[in-house]
Amino acid sequence: MIDGKRRKEEKRIKDEDLFKVVDSTIDSRTYLSLIQLARKLQIKEYYGAISSGKEAKIYPALTKDGTWYAVKIYYVTTAASKRALEKYTIGDPRFKDVKIKTTFQLIETWARKEYKNLVRLYEAGVSSPRPIFVYRNILVMDFIGQDGIRAPLLKELSEEEINEDLYRKVIGELEKMVNIAHLVHGDLSEYNIMVWDEKPYIIDVSQSVDLQHPNALELLKRDIENINRFFEDHNISVELVEDILSRLKIS
Ligand code: ADP
Ligand code: MN
Where would one find coiled-coil regions in this protein (predicted)? Predict the structure, then answer.
């Protein structure tokens, strides 16, 4: 009895040791999921959030064998994000059977959608974080960067690093994304591309849609325009949107 109690106490302390930073914004359900995930993936430590957006936060996690993961936690969303999810999933044949019920199911749908999109990108050889696991509202993927320090976003590069070679690589990844993975990013910009070792990584694909989505072409044009605008602003000569589109298998 006393031994059992002590073991329980020890286990509780161990679970708390998992978290290198106390984050009061993690709800108790997510907290328990993180503990289960740690057992499953041999995670030794979760570190403080490296980013907190409207709908998700990213935490670095370190495994017992020294591998870093990026853990993306989707949290309870607003009415606006519910509308956004519906907009992106309605019309996508892969999600025609998804019926949205509770808020928890809703955010879990976002996590699963991003995971599935990352799998498609990975299988198509697109440069993006390798998906590791999805559990409830938590997505685990390869960490882009080193020793828990994330790589810079395209937006954060110095002038010299923003060159024509990088522009071509970004357009190359976009081409693979469309022609091989059959996905349109839908929110591509200097904020959703990380650069590590002069190589771009496409991130944040929860809202990416299949080429069959009714808005696919419109979203694709906007993605290309965003990329062109960013590089043009940094005095790189860019290709015409039409010329890029002509190489893409989308009508
Ligand atoms: P949001 O919906 O909040 O924009 P993102 O997926 O864009 O979510 O991630 C937010 C930030 O977290 C990114 O800008 C980047 O700095 C960091 N990040 C995202 N994915 C990774 C990753 N795999 N490795 C390292 N850092 C990442
Ligand atoms: Mn983002």
Answer: none
Instruction: Give the ligand whose atoms come closest to the C-alpha of residue 189.
Output: 2
**Pocket lining: 143 vs ligand 1, CB cutoff 6 Å:** yes
Name the helix (H) or strand (E) containing 69.
strand 68-74
| Tokens encoding 118 | 């990352």
ipTM score above 0.90: yes
Least confident of 101-115, 116-130, 155-169, 230-244: 101-115
Q: Is the CB of 241 under 6 A from ligand 1?
A: no
Quickly state the pLDDT bin for 57 (edges 50, 70, 90). very high
| 153 Cβ below 6 A of ligand 1 | yes
Q: Please report which confidence band the pLDDT of residue 94 belongs to, taking 50, 70 and 90 as the band edges.
A: confident
Q: Which residues are catalytic?
A: 187, 204
> Could you tell me if 85 and 110 are in contact, meaning their C-beta atoms sit under 8 angstroms apart?
yes
Q: What is the pTM of this model?
A: 0.90
Q: Which domains does the chain have, with CATH numbers?
A: 2-146 (3.30.200.20), 149-246 (1.10.510.10)
Total count of residues recorded for the chain: 251
115 contacts 72 by C-beta, under 8 angstroms = no
Hey, how many other C-beta atoms are within 10 angstroms of the C-beta on 84? 17
**Paired residues of 45 in beta bridges:** 62
